[in-house]
Amino acid sequence: MTYIGKSVKRLEDKRFLTGKGKYTDDIVLPGMTHAYIVRSPHAHARILNVNTSKAEELPGVIAVFTGKDVAEVNGVPCGWQVNFKNGDTMKEPPHKLLVADKARHMGDGVAMVIAEDYATAKDAAELIVVDYDPLPAVTNTADALKAGAPTVHDDAPNNICFDWELGTDKAVVDAAFEKAHHITTLEYENQRVIPNAIEPRSAIGHYDDTNERYTLYTSSQNPHLIRLLLCAFVLGIPEHKVRVVSPDVGGGFGSKIFHYTEEALVIWASNQIKRPIKWTAERSESFLTDAHGRDHVTKAEMAFDADGNILAMRAKTIANLGAYLSSFAPAVPTWLYGTLLQGLYTTPAVHVDVTAVFTHTTAVDAYRGAGRPEATYLLERLMDTAALEMKMDPAELRKKNFIPPFDGIEQEGYTTQVALQYDSGNYDRVLDRALEMVDYKKFRADQAAARKEGRLLGIGFSTYIEACGIAPSAVVGALGARAGLFESAHVRVHPTGKVSVYTGAHSHGQGHETTFAQVVADKFGIPLEDVILEHGDSDSVAFGMGTYGSRSLAVGGSAIVKSVEKVIAKGTKIAAHLLEASEADIEFAEGKWSVKGTDKAVGFGDVSLTAYVPHNYPEGLEPGMDFSSFYDPANFTYPFGAHIAIVEIDKETGKTTLQRFIAVDDVGNVINPMIVEGQIHGGLAQGIGQALFEGAIYDESGNLMNGTYMDYTMPRADDLPSFEVDNAVTPCPHNPLGVKGAGEAGCIGSTPAVVNAVMDALSPYGIHDVKMPTTSERVWNIIHANEA
Amino acid sequence: MKVPITITVNGKKHQAEVEARTLLVHFLREHLRLTGTHVGCDTSGCGACTVLLNGKALKSCTMLAVQADGHEVTTIEGMATNGTLHPIQEGFHQKHGLQCGFCTPGMVMTAADLLSKNPNPDDHQIREALEGNFCRCTGYHNIVESVKYAANAMSE
Q1: CA separation (Å) from A542 to A6, A267, A447, A567, A627?
Q2: Other CB atoms closer than 10 Å to residue B154's CB: what's the count?
Q3: Per-residue pLDDT of chain B (156 residues; tens, 9 = 90+)
Q4: What is the distance in angstroms between the Cα of A11 and the nearest Cα belonging to chain B?
Q5: Rounded-to-integer distance, Cα A148 and Cα A19, Å
């Protein structure tokens, strides 16, 4: 029986397909009340007075809390520290559960109403009168640093959270530029995008005064971390008195990693009113309060010799962190961005300089890819632009500069200029395969013919690498993480030989219930239906670090393998006893322990039963078959791939049609190809969304102008083609499954491929850049400005 | 003020008194506890709340429960018969047309409407029919495949 490598249909599907999924907002607790949060309509305003008396008088209202009521409660903390270049600690202003004196972004929570039902809570919220004194706001990333810009936090002069640098000695980099035959320069914005998981965030806080325990149900990607932060940093509640459950979660994409104020509010307030409280975001609240992604302004330069070899790369970035530091915000534009600026290339000198700023906007944190898409966008836009400028083929230019293949076993890992050691890679292979799939020569001929007819047809490339499987605790600790990043697993073999697996990873669409069961069933040689995966409940799962950074299988799956190995080792002792053989003569395969070279064997079920009915049992061996493990990886994993986009632009309307998208990704070994392809598809759609459609728009006073689904243009079914995907396999050399992670790949590689294709289509006009998203309006204006 | 209504949901007649402002989606989720119909937005933009009203796809957040008085509603809970998945549900399972599952009920109901009008749609027609339903997980590729699978299964 083999499950690994097969497209096993998902075990979790049926409940979702029949309407029986259980998301947080579907949960109803006895006596449950409903919360609505009054939010600042201003990006920056002093709060002069909050009058709640009329709201409190409305029948059905149970309580109203304001910033003053939670003034003594700690705010939500930041989980990653980055220091200034001079060694000073980053600026870390408090992020209170509700603000009492000043609102710092549109949507900042000012008061919370709790009522018997949601409609009453919302009615009461409209009766709360808040006197605001609106102040000038700064929302634009580059403007935050300008002299005279409005100040977000008094203790962060010039709105700077920190400055930071990484890479080769700056003088060496600059010297390489001095010698360059050609320098390609790009100044661009990597615009702010809004994650928009389709399930709005939701939290239920329940204080049970019979046993003085709290339960938090929350739409989170990592319930244990929420519990840790809630207990140790915000409310000071003993951790063993708190259970956090993340039931079915309707997508995350990073935005549900973080500890949000509403989670702490419903828990705190449930003790005030001694009843459960549910809060569920409306979509317009999600737009204003879910952490956003990207938002960089960068000047990047790449130096080449006459043959097209890269001599050096340097980048200077301003990164917008929003009004408050979200849980992992400081890591994103630094250790998840700067470290990836070597890309797939042998660039001998790389330097990156980042200034992180506060603005009067929603917090920015990890969004699918987190830093790595920004790095890839920079490098891959530079590569296609350089190819155009140097009149070289963009595929050839890349191949000329690729790091040669290495497997991490026979050949060592590749050490970059920016603090990483890539585990294994074969970059030519993925690009060659993508070129084959696109039929590159034919495309160039078609393109030449199209241009003669005046049609704008373009091709764009992107070859990316990402650091996933986040991450070795010691490494991230040295880089500023305030938590470890291991994962836990617990494998419980029941007396009948059925198996429950508990993981600290959390599935919110990734199909862990299937993939992880495939691994366990295969390793034990038992049917898939004999394995069940439990996740998301801090009472049943001992500990966990959750799901993000494409880490679930690489880190969480590896922890499961450790427990599986412990079961097999103990089973070997029991089998040796039952078979009256020496342990050294026992081998385990296909669900049986056998005496080598004989037909004497005992099955998985018999050994399991013996472990729990230990009448005839090895002396000194504990009964039971129940093992937990923790796995801390030795290194990040480094998936990579080659993406190619083909677009045609309608001259009359400026509309870009994505005709084809080819993705060849190498995510190491694949457990379930169907699920991996699905992950790639979803990532592609989000990356393409950033290239063509999406982007948060703030006006000068700090209003989010497109904070609804009427205005924020995510890709819809008729905006996208079907994708052409394939994969190559370069196993990860340092984890037991050889897997690298697939969740973010599509989103990292696709954005620059599409923009490069748009630029290639527009290249007859001799322009080199267009702002993302490359909307019809922007493209039409470029065409008409250059034709006039 | 409460208004008496009678709505047939998944073949079963329900009588209730609701506030006039109660949306159909809230009636389904809160009064009948049919939580398979989801709320993903507040502007009728996401389609997660799509149900069939008298056999036609409708975003149940755009309609008051009182407007559905006397009508027949089918939700995702009413699609399978005696534990056997509807061919559209089966298509989504076979072709991995769902990941987190949140948009899935709305997608299935919209697809049911499409296939009732056009039993053999091409890719383009499927994509056009689904353009009122957001999915953030799948990139739509496998949803299109799922609907094609269902169309084939239903025409057999």
Answers
A1: 30, 21, 58, 18, 12
A2: 16
A3: 899 999 999 999 999 999 999 999 999 999 999 999 999 999 999 999 999 999 999 999 999 999 999 999 999 999 999 999 999 999 999 999 999 999 999 999 999 999 999 999 999 999 999 999 999 999 999 999 999 999 999 998
A4: 9
A5: 54
Residue in the block written with tokens 């965030």: A201
ipTM of the complex: 0.98
Q: Pseudo-torsion of CA B16, B19, B25, B27, nearest 10°?
A: -20
Predicted local distance difference test score (pLDDT) of residue A767: 83
CB contact under 8 A, B43 and A283: yes
Identify whether the C-beta of residue A491 lies closer than 8 Å to the C-beta of residue A520.
yes
- Distance between CA A279 and CA A201 in Å, rounded? 8
Whether A260 maps to a domain, the answer reads yes
Whether the per-residue pLDDT at A1 is higher than 70: the answer is no
- Please check whether the domain covering B87-155 is classified as CATH 3.40.50.720: no
Residues 6+ apart with CB under 8 A from A261: A75, A76, A95, A96, A97, A98, A109
Residues A692 and A741 in one domain: yes
Structural tokens at position A571: 């089973």
- The DSSP symbol for A89 reads B
Distances (CA, A) of A244 to A204, A310, A538, A575: 10, 50, 5, 39
Identify all chain B residues contacting A19, using CB atoms and an 8 Å cutoff.
Answer: 34-37, 75-77, 105
Inspect the interface and report whether the beta carbons of B100 and A282 lie closer than 8 Å: no
Q: How far is B97 from chain A (nearest CA, A)?
A: 8
Distance CA A521, CA A592 (A): 13
Question: Does B8 contact chain A (CB < 8 Å)?
Answer: no
Residue ranges of domains in chain B: 2-78, 87-155
Q: Does A788 score more than 70 pLDDT?
A: no
Q: Is B127 on the interface with A (CB under 8 A)?
A: yes
pLDDT digits (tens, 9 = 90+) for A461-475: 999 999 999 889 988
Tell me the C-alpha distance between A742 and A289, whole Å.
27
Tell me which fold the domain B2-78 belongs to: Ubiquitin-like (UB roll) (3.10.20)
Cβ atoms of A260 and A285 closer than 8 Å: no
Going by DSSP bridges, is the β-strand pair A213-218/A242-245 parallel, antiparallel, or unpaired?
parallel
Contact B85/A at CB under 8 A: yes
Structure token pair of residue A2? 């083999």
Do A219 and A77 have their domain in common?
A: yes
Name the minimum distance, in Å, from the CA of B70 to any CA of chain A. Answer: 24
Owner of token pair 């697809």? B111
Distance (Å, whole) CA A746 – CA A686: 8
Contact residues, chain A, for B19 at CB < 8 Å = 119
Q: Does residue A504 sit in the same domain as residue A648?
A: no
CB atoms near residue A580 (< 10 Å): 8
- Which of A598, A631, A664 corresponds to the end of one domain? A631
